[in-house]
Amino acid sequence: FPLNLHAHTDFLSDLFQFLGYFAKGLGYVLHVHNHHHVEKSLHDPYTDYFAALDGQRALGYIGLRLGMDTADITTFCVQKEERRRGIGTMLLEKACDYAAAKGCEKLFLEVRRSNKAACALYEKNGFRFVHERRNYYSHPCEDALVLVKEIGKKM
To answer: CA–CA separation, 67 vs 65, rounded Å?
Structure first.
């Protein structure tokens, strides 16, 4: 299916809708500060967002923050009705390729322990378990699993 990946500023309103949709769908509370954090990050030269678009409609998005030689996926979501169509894999591949092109060697992310579908997607795409962060998430309180994927090599 023809999908385009676009840089962050083209889909700010969709991004906020996704954040609310994602939180509601999983039964989590989305706090106002999350909106401020995302809006602020759009002006951060080390943070980038990409959206999978079908025409003008955003189907999913991924955000990442670049460091010196590592990057972190800060947010990632595919609309529920669009899942299992390869969109998540496409966004993960875009994030890996982009971070590697920027000189990063590893890509990290955190995921709720209970999010089995996401864990399976990450494992399928080459991420491996690093460690656990106890009580990392709130609303509800839950542990985070920290995963990493090797994406580049030192020269």
So the answer is: 7
